[in-house]
Amino acid sequence: MRLSCDVEMLSRGLASYGMRAKTKPIRSSISIGRRPGASSSKEGLIFLLVCTAKDRNGTKFKLKGNVEQIFGKFVQNGKATIRLKEPAKDICISKADPLQLKNILSVIKLGHLDRNCDLEKIHLTTLNPAKTSQVERLPTKMVVHSRKDYPVTTNFPKTLESLQIMHCKLKKVDSRILELRNLKCLDLSNNNLAKLPDSVGRLNQLAELKLANNQLDRIPLGLLNSSLKHSLQALDLSGNQFKMLPSQLTEFTNLVHLKVNDNQLLCLPWNMGQLTRLKFFWAGNNKLQFLPYSFTRLALEEVDMFGNGFQGSGMFPSTQDEGYFPSFVEIAARAVKKYRLMYTERDLPRILIQYLGLAKWCLCGKPCFQPYAQHCSQFSLHRVAHTVAGLDSAGSTTAPVQGFLCSKDCWQRLQSNPNAVWKCSRR
Ligand SMILES: [Zn+2]
Questions:
Q1: Would you list the domain boundaries of the chain?
Q2: Which CATH architecture has domain 2-135?
Q3: 363 C-alpha vs ligand 1 centroid, how far in Å?
Q4: Each residue of 376-416: pLDDT tens digit?
């Protein structure tokens, strides 16, 4: 039984003197077994052997009655700590395969309790020195810039944290990539991707996702509802076929960089103001006519929206008549938003999911899909960003913002005192 992982040995003896040795994690191979030649349970005790590239014969630690505690809260992330009594050391394990780590921790527990009858059922090694391949540090970064370099017969190293695959004419995302749970940066720009699998959302450490210059026109719900909501800091969708961005994208509240330039966007999500950490926003060369009202709440470093079709301003009521009665889909969509229901593509009719993507937010903070009225005014982008690229060849930096009003009440409040209503806007 062997486990390749990073190991950092911490001495608790030094800590009691207020000192900490300068150590760092070393690629190691951990195995559990008996002394060479002691095959029977009665002849030999169980040892934990930690081998490194410098010391391939390794250091042995007795297990019987010698484990003070096992810290296994983060086993799923490939991390655990084994606290030994003698010597007073903490063996801190990281970057391990979660399943193998779980197995080896359960054997360590059996060794500590000296449960020989259970141990006999498990295949234990005889504490041989580690092979070079078991202790060599695997790469964390990989760059593939042509089809001939694409790994077909070999696997992607599981330790990869950054993977860039460009100009390989990929039509779909390789399922082997979706198993790389340590990935922090995935760059699949300049390929032919037309669709993303839901399972991209399983890469729960991902902070940067770059998909520029592909053929994408939608983001799957599985990804929008995944933990990427909390981890993603940079998203590049430039040079694709998007006509609209899903409103769920505004729940990715840790986004700092968002690139959606060179698409066919007709509008931005109405609740975009929720992206309070957003600092860099590129949406040039689209077909935007208005900005959503909530855009005025952003605090950006840099914004570039050159080459859109921004229109003039004016305040105008909608064409809705007084006897308007909401449709069934409108009532259902409002209920989903009101009760914050989680849903997947299997739970709701497609028409309702599309409808939900069109949610607009009234200045009073409530969602509406068919607003009672809308208003529009000119807005200087310098109010939300330090660096503003001109919107056209004349260098204009003023764009129209459009807001919606859910009811006649809100419309009358805006008419009687516009600033007061705007102040109580929550979205
Ligand atoms: Zn309202």
A1: 2-135
A2: Roll (2.30)
A3: 6
A4: 878 899 999 999 998 888 888 999 888 888 777 888 887 77
